[in-house]
Amino acid sequence: MSYLAKNYNRKKIAFKYGKGSYLYSTDGKKYLDLISGIAVNSLGHAHPKLVKTIRDQSKKLWHVSNAFQIPEGEKLAKKLCQKTFADYVIFQNSGAEATEASIKVARRYFYSIGKPNKTRILCIKNSFHGRTLATIFASGSKKMTEGFGYVGGFDHFIFGDHKSLKKKITKNTAAIMVETVLGEGGIKVIPDWCLKELRKLCDKKKILLILDEVQCGIGRSGNFFAFEKSKVKPDIVPIAKGIGGGFPIGAVLMNKKVASGMTPGTHGSTFGGNPLAMAVGNTVMDIVSTKKFLNNVKKSSKYFFSKLNKLKEKYPSIIKEVRGTGLLIGIQLHTDQTKFIKKLMDNKLLAIRAAENVVRILPPLNIKIKEIDLALKIINKVCSKIK
Ligand SMILES: *Cc1c(COP(=O)(O)O)cnc(C)c1O
């Protein structure tokens, strides 16, 4: 029997170790891992540079309180700011903490400029921002909030319904918070022109734009951030998943304007930004933020998408759409995807579900072309066996 509470419906597979894009199960099987711990293992498993970083740093210093200077964190914050729109960073330990802290930053900014009633956050209905009490109510999903009381302060609009979006902005709205690419919600990309309109709307209404890049950020899209190619500059961006490459790290990136509200004592985290986590974050950052690395993600993405679209043409009664960006890929099926994913797993390919019948594919960002070919071969095989 398991002493773990039953809040997960776990597959009956356990892994002994991983290497690159592969996971090796306790019963001796080798799986191609296109889940990457849900966009977390951005450099695959047991990347030598990450192993070395952990080993070296663990001998020096794991943890000190944020009451002290932490040079490793200073270094990572500097890199994040120099590569992006951001002027300041707050480190956390997870995505939900980062999105929740983003909400705090937005509210605190308006409080600090004498507008304490501007607290409401406008989000997309059935999006995903994490599992804390506040962030489940930000997601506005009945399934996630049912039985958990009520946390107010969030309004919702339907994805793509621009009229209702404009109508939902009130004098008490502080920010619009959306995922640049809806991950759990079914790999739905917000088009660049929409991001631009969102920015314009926020400027016009004097509210803040929060782009949740917890899943789609850190090189996953082929750019460091998924919003970059739209040329839009958000005010606040929560990140997590990919930045630690498997080590729990979250962060809120923000511009100077909103950072002004975050005075001493307004926010904190015991673990957030500790030297061990920051050492790992620095190594991940040094690898994934280079032009060469990102260009390679774009190349792998282009290859994967073109081949998947061929499979869509070959099996139009199975595959409805191939969508996403970079190596954040959704294969939308015409019917429920559960059995399809099970068959992929039976053929040693790991993929995970997302909403709207989507089979979600999140390879390590350094996946090799021959590994993509293997994945395509397995997907083709599974499709060919469905009548
Ligand atoms: C995963 C995710 C989160 C929550 O991250 P956790 O680390 O699980 O708390 C928040 N926002 C988005 C877009 C995510 O995909």
What does this protein look like?
The chain has 387 residues and is of the alpha/beta class. Among the domains are: 58-288, Type I PLP-dependent aspartate aminotransferase-like (Major domain) (Aspartate Aminotransferase, domain 2, 3-Layer(aba) Sandwich); 290-327. The protein has 13 helices and 17 strands. The chain has helices spanning 36-39, 48-60, 71-83, 95-112, 133-139, 142-145, 162-168, 192-205, 256-259, 275-288, 291-314, 338-346, 369-384, and strands spanning 15-19, 22-25, 30-33, 88-92, 120-124, 154-157, 173-179, 181-182, 188-189, 208-212, 236-239, 250-254, 319-325, 328-333, 349-350, 352-354, 358-361. The chain has a four-stranded mixed beta sheet. Helix 2 runs antiparallel to helix 10, helix 3 (71-83) packs parallel to helix 10 and helix 11 runs parallel beside helix 13. The longest helix is centred in the last third of the chain and has 24 residues, at 291-314. Bound molecules: pyridoxal-5'-phosphate. The site of pyridoxal-5'-phosphate has 15 residues, from helix 4.
